[in-house]
Amino acid sequence: MTPEIILEDGKCRCLLFPGLLQNERAEHWIEALPWQQNEIRMFGRTHAEPRLTTWMGPAYRYASIQWTDTPFSDEMARLMNVVQHHASPEKKFNAVLANLYRDGQDAMGWHRDDEKDIDSQCIASVSLGSTRDFAIRHRQTGQKWTVSLQHGDVLIMEAMQEAFEHSVPRRKRTDTPRINFTFRHIVTS
Ligand SMILES: O=C(O)CCC(=O)C(=O)O
Predict the structure, then answer these.
(1) Distance 62 CA to ligand 1 centre (A)
(2) What is the C-alpha to C-alpha distance for residues 45 and 61, in angstroms, rounded to an integer?
């Protein structure tokens, strides 16, 4: 499948494989995974994240959240292999952060996946369930892109974590869940 190029700026690229994983069932993953709501500490205040999350991969800490070393299930390893085949990470993915947006009130603010333990050269994300906008913003120019991510879409971000940030904005009229799997390579010394 040839991807759509959402943006290209020097070595930074964002690619979309529409519907690549459309045979996956969001309902299955909602039941199969051990979702939790984390408290996050930011700017001296603690609040519950506006989404549920879970993790498979090596032990990993970001902000006030500590994920323990959790092996991949066979079915998540199968999904990762498909994504891996369409992405070109310098190092193979070894971790997935799963996000469950229960409805349009759940969201993710502007951020970069640039923590020092992440190999941020290639991050691949899978969308299942409800359609949600994925917003990208150039940190210097403020230029914005909005991609409507639909069930089964796979989005690849190459070398984007320094110059660009991304978010999943709230959507008042969305009342069904969306799952996102974000595959990364965590550097384990
Ligand atoms: O839900 C998404 O599509 C984005 C998730 C994300 O940005 C992240 O996990 O860092």
Answers:
(1) 14
(2) 18
